[in-house]
Here is the input.
Amino acid sequence: MRPYTRRIMEEAHRKGTPVMRTLFYMCPDDLVCWETEDEYFYGPDVLVAPVLYAGQRSRTVYLPKEESWIDYTTGKEYEGGQTIKVDAPLNTIPVFIKKNSNIFSKE
Here is the structure.
């Protein structure tokens, strides 16, 4: 993730683009994204769904439409435009990667 983080930090420096982005910032045409307040994008390709409550061990996650998403922990692929329920044990934050992203490239 270091090269990806460097890229989004450089973009923030040059263009003023936020590193952490609301869903509606990235998906303005997806009306559900305007109502989702407990998830965020880390750069353009990583969707983070933090656990917000003590004792919570699963949570629902909305995956924005018109993309396919890969669960970073399990590798399972999901179509966007749906809400899913995922496990969230103490040692795991639910994170999803856009299927066709290149976050692990070194460029």
User: Anything to note?
Assistant: The chain has a mean pLDDT of 93. Residues 61 and 84 are 5 Å apart (CA to CA). The longest strand covers residues 58-63.
